[in-house]
Every structure is written in structure tokens, then in C-alpha cells.
Amino acid sequence: MNTSTSTVIDAHKVSRTFNPETIPVLAVDDVHLHLERGEFTALVGPSGSGKTTLLNLLGGLDKPDKGIIHINGVDITKLPANKLIDFRLHNIGFVFQSFNLIPVLTAKENVELIMQLQHRKKTEIAERVKILFHQIGLEDKVNTRPAQLSGGQQQRVAVARALASKPQFVLADEPTANLDSKSAANLLDVMAKLNVEEKITFIFSTHDARVIERARRVITLVDGQIHSDTARVETNVPHEVDKLKL
């Protein structure tokens, strides 16, 4: 766990039940979770353990039935929809397992969109896009639409989109699931560099041993509850990270 004493995500007694009127499924059950600035954390556990649901709750994509979630002191469970959207836009980057790229936009346009919504300068957007596509190794695919990209390529574009605005937090649901070993390592290197240099907090929901071995904190969920929470002293950040340019 990061040595900072600044808690930036604080979930208290959070629960989420699906289908409460028919066959209730308690996906997240009375979870207490504190995350410090600059953490590199993996949520792990068997399928159905609540990893993705907890990630969605922390990102404000879903609301708990019970409990509160503070991010930077803001209780996101009480924000009205328009303010919650604005909060996510300026604070959180998302990487979805299903990519969620906009099909009518090119890869470059998908990555540009978040920064345009933030009203960034055109020159700043262009430079950031150029750097990110170099890092994900898709410089020759910037004008390609998602349907013409492989699953792995779409995932890399989705990661670039999440990182584009340099958010305070990145919540990633199985970000390496469709990548080969080299591509996965390169993406994890990029994330590790941003984590170390810019103190971006990364939270992964994952089954991937490549992600888990790089995490500095591993939280295991079983049946919607935290079964174990292990902090590691080593950073697991390779020396090659120093050479990356972001």
C-alpha cells in the first residue's frame, strides 16, 4: 500500500443487491475499503465474487443499496446525476472489459473525446494523442474505426482513452484480458509509470496473473466480501519504465 496518509477513496458498509424483487443476488456485502493516493491495487477473486460490481460502485457507475463512498471527501452516492457525470469526467478514467468504444468514431477520435469534453486546447490534445498511440503501439491505426481493429487493439485504444486526460483514478475491469504477453507488459509499464510519477491511483478487477504480480496491494473478494487484503513492499515496477516517455 502507498505510504501516503491521504485516503482518497473511502467506502463504508457498502452493499449492492441485484434483482431484489425476484431472486436477490447480494453482489457486494457490507464492504469497508480505504484506498490511498497513488495505490496500484488489484481486486481478485472467483467469477461472481463481486469484483466488477465493486469497481462500478467506486467509479459511480452504480449506486449502493446501503453505505457511502467518499472520493476526495465527496460522497458520490449523494451526487445528482449531472454532477456525478461531471465528477467522473474530471477525476476518473475507465477501462471496460467490453471496450465501450464509440463505433462511428476512429481510434484517435475515441481517445480525443474525453479531452474535448474537458475543453482542453487542441494542441494539448494532439500531443497527448500522439504520445499515447506511440506507447500502445498503434500509430498506424489512429484513423481506423473499432470494427476494423482486433479485440486486443480495441483494448489498447480503451486504455489510451482512460489515460488521455491524466485522471486521478483509473478503474480497469480486466484490462489485459485480450492482450498477448508483450502487449500486456507494455500497457502495465505505461500504467506503472503514470502511477509512480503522477500518483494516479489504479484499481484493477482482474484474473490475470500478470496484473496481480505487478500490483502493490491485492484485495481478494469472496461472495461479495473482502476475504483478504495484502499490501506488498516491493513496487514490481521494471527499470524499463524509466525509459518510457509520456
Automatic annotation (TrEMBL):
Any GO CC annotation of this UniProt entry: membrane protein complex
Superkingdom field: Bacteria
UniProtKB keywords: ATP-binding, Nucleotide-binding, Transport
Keyword Transport: yes
Matching InterPro entries: AAA+_ATPase, ABC_transporter-like_ATP-bd, ABC_transporter-like_CS, ABC_transpr_LolD-like, MacB-like_ATP-bd, P-loop_NTPase
Keyword Nucleotide-binding annotated: yes
GO molecular function: ATP binding; ATP hydrolysis activity; transmembrane transporter activity
ABC transporter domain sequence ranges: 9-246
Family according to the record: Belongs to the ABC transporter superfamily. Macrolide exporter (TC 3.A.1.122) family.
Protein name, entry field: ABC transporter ATP-binding protein
